[in-house]
Design goal:
Elements lengths: L6 E6 L3 H13 L4 E6 L5 H8 L3 E5 L5 H11 L7 E5 L7 H6 L4 E4 L3 H28 L6 H4 L6 E6 L2 E5 L1 H7 L21 H12 L7 E7 L5 E13 L2 E8 L9 H8 L11 H13 L6 E9 L2 H8 L4 H15 L5 E6 L2 E8 L2 H17 L2 E3 L2 E3 L3 E8 L6 H17 L5 E3 L5 H6 L2 H13 L3 E10 L7 E9 L5 E2 L1 H10 L3 H18 L4 E5 L2 H5 L3 H12 L6 E6 H6 L1 H13 L3 E7 L3 H7 L4 E4 L11 H16 L3 E4 L5 H10 L3 E3 L7 E4 L7 H7 L3
Length: 696
Amino acid sequence: MIKSKSVSVIVVSATPDHSEAINTALRDSGFAAHCNQVTIVTDLEGAMGARDPELVFLFAESVGPDLDTAHQCCRGMATRVPLLLVVSEPQTVKPADAMAHGAHDCVSLRDTRHLQAVAARELRSFRTERALSKVMNSARQFKQELHSLKQVSVEAIADVQEGIVVNVNPAWLELFAYDDADQLIGQPIMDICSSTDHAAVKGGIVACQRGKWNDATLAVKGLHPDGSEFPVEFCLENVEHDGEPAVRMLVKPDTSAPSSADSLIEDAGRHDPGTGIFNREHFVLSSTARLQETPQGGIRALAYVRIDHFSRAAKAVGLMGTERIIAQFADLLREYAQPTDIYGRFGGTMFLVLLERGTVADAIAWAQQFSNAVEQAVFSYEKASTMMTCSIGLVEADAQDQDLAKLLGQAEQACGVARDAGGNQVQLSEASGGNRQARQDDSIWVPRIRGALMDNRFRLEHQPIAGLNNEIGDAYDILVRMLDDKGKTILPGEFMPAAARTGMTKNIDRWVIGATFSFCMTNAAELVFVRLSRDSILDETLPGWLKAQLDRTRLTPQRICFEVDEQVALEHLLHARKLAKALRALGFRFALEHVGQSAQSAFSRIEMDIAKLDGSLMQGLHKNAEQQDRVKQLVEQANAAGIATLAERVQDANTMAVLWQLGISYIQGNYVQKREIVIEDTSRSTVTTRALQLQS
């Protein structure tokens, strides 16, 4: 018998003596009971929402309406609360009759030992059931919802030709809740997919038909005949049906071994029982560990998310529905998070997300996308529904200061600013980048940069680029890293601002160009992107220096594409136009990166071969029709000018599938492949000599 924990009890009776009698009986049997009296049964639902009881005693002399009402209240809780009918005499009501109307048993104050035994039995059963419910909610994090996916024993398969379903197997019918194959065959595949995923599904099918779909899975929401949505992941492959090409969509069964009871219970300790996402403690542990790891590139940001005016939503759905709509909010957060994100419930209506993105602008774009999704969603419980908004505070995580508590305070403060302004908005903390700026004191960084150049402590990394609507062989985006005197990697965001302020970026650019030439001479890459800084744009000696390198190395210039930031190019338009013309005259290719807001102006004024569309446009692209229209417009403008397009920072298969539909030429990002070091030690090549020469 469990007696170490206090027991919350509600007694429904108009007589105070009844509540005292139940309290005494339970305490005499070893339970630390806390009894709360409700005088009329119609007040029971409100009391249960406020008290979270583990036992309910209803004093009545018959199995009438009061018992039926109490039964409905008890069964409405997440875990059904035991309801015991208390009568004056043991034989007044038969236990079978009481149980037939929803009571767990019938007891009497005249038989205290029986009452105590029944209470202990029901309490033990209730606590066991509730613990099991928590374990199962935690398991939901790692499996698709059982009622939606229906755990088929074989792969669910559908064959599609020109967007029309031509064949399905029984497992597919079961998955989508259809009784007969004739109900699906001949129907558009889009009819059983959520409208928000149509672009991704269509793009994925086209990519597969063209042989561009690898082993990726397409994560979408399927539709049941009643209109309800459920998550599903497709694998795609090319097949033949009746001698004609078709695309096969497969949903593989879950073949993972069932978890042991111990592992499920351990996992339950990591997750919030109401939402299935990380709880406060495990979020802190996971995020602290992640912050200790050196980032491979980009930025990390902490998002503090809080539901606005939750009391209004709670009033709309009632106390019984509050946890349900919070769980729906968490499901939406899970849907928008990327695999590398860490997210959890911090308590009440507060959630935290540790984001990994390319830039701060990407993090802001993600936050705005999620905020918009919350605003447009409908949250429901039984027949009641409501709408909600949220406020999000963002703070960039400093690469050298890993204090999660400090980040949390800054993000919470930014969220407070957003809430004070009326809510439903995203606020970037004023602290973002502040510590970094303090460390970028030029007197510290200049000697370090000079030392790295002299000691050859720069390294190149490459990020592969893949062809979508345009074919391309091996292609890479070249990135630079600096090593400190202990061999620790320093990202460009740490040293490049100081280099830019002190006029040292030109030297770094030339080191990178020299190292890239060496890489191309020993590698069969078809195309390599090398970015140029503001100083190099203004350096009129650069074209002559590059010509000398070409003459010496005999490298084919078409293999190198120099890229310049769109805004920097427009700020120095005359120099950018002159440089682009000179580089293309030498045979190099030229590109603008981070293209977006001023694309039309750039396309019409600067000669270029490729436009790299800004990665912030890719955040939530597969869910945002307006953003898709914007990217499509950019692609059409570029095509009209004879310019190929490349999408930056593509993180998932769904985004790639949409980009197929929008006509993007190439993509890069972690979905293609994470960055890898391509020159471990330039001292073993001719780069060292050249790098030293570049400093003069």
